[in-house]
Specification:
This protein is an all-beta fold. It has one domain: Beta Barrel (YmcC-like fold). It has a 15-stranded antiparallel sheet that branches. A hairpin with an 8-residue loop joins strand 11 and strand 12.
């Protein structure tokens, strides 16, 4: 496996459409305003939820590079207390064929999902600006600005086609004078979770790694 820094992103969602029958009575009921989705609708952190992703790598022309990536999976395990606050244990298996599972601790805070270290991994804040800045290196030579793009985008993956919001990351490097942004995407669908995410190696940001939803279980 390549030994170099890897830019990754987390996330999960589908806009859920519900059809309603008309009331046949002569009295018309007042229209009910649709409730605004919360961050937990897009990132459902209930114990027992899981998502399975197909992993592929593509070159700069979009051609799939032959590889032996295993399916990636994310599972919500038990809750745990950290500094007297409840967090959900999120375990990821086989990310880029890593033999050791990755364990993170998340909680929903207002309109954000944050780690126990305060990093924002998903947000639906009502802003057009930067939501969170991640310093990849302590010397600030590489950093990522994250945005929430709420304009729905249709994403097709093996499990289906979903309407999603995008928690987008824009990576900047000092080596190119911070002039060029390399983008990562985390597409979430309401009541589903993370449908698709992209990543790349810092040593070769033109090759894109795609994690596409194969199957899921959300309660």
């Amino acid at each position: 496996m390549k030994k170099c820094a890897l830019v990754i992103g987390l996330g999960i969602s589908l806009f859920f459409f519900i059809s309603c029958k008309k009331d046949k009575s002569s009295t018309t009921a007042p229209a009910t305003q649709a409730s605004t989705p919360s961050v937990s609708d897009y990132f459902p952190l209930k114990t027992g939820n899981y998502w399975v992703y197909k992993t592929t790598e593509c070159d700069s022309n979009g051609n799939i590079i032959a590889g032996t990536y295993k399916n990636d999976s994310v599972i919500i395990k038990n809750d745990t207390l950290i500094n007297s606050k409840t967090y959900h244990t999120v375990v990821e298996y086989n990310f880029m064929n890593c033999p050791t599972p990755s364990m993170q601790y998340y909680t929903d805070s207002a309109d954000c999902v944050v780690t126990n270290y305060g990093k924002i991994v998903f947000s639906i804040k009502n802003t057009s600006g930067v939501i969170y800045t991640q310093m990849v290196y302590a010397d600030s030579s590489v950093y990522i600005n994250y945005f929430c793009i709420k304009t729905p985008v249709s994403i097709s993956v093996p499990s289906g086609t979903y309407s999603c919001v995008d928690f987008e990351g824009a990576l900047y490097e000092k080596s190119n004078n911070f002039d060029k942004a390399y983008l990562t995407h985390h597409y979430y669908s309401e009541n589903i979770g993370l449908v698709k995410r992209t990543a790349f190696y810092l040593s070769n940001p033109l090759n894109i790694i795609n994690l596409d939803l194969l199957s899921y279980h959300v309660q």
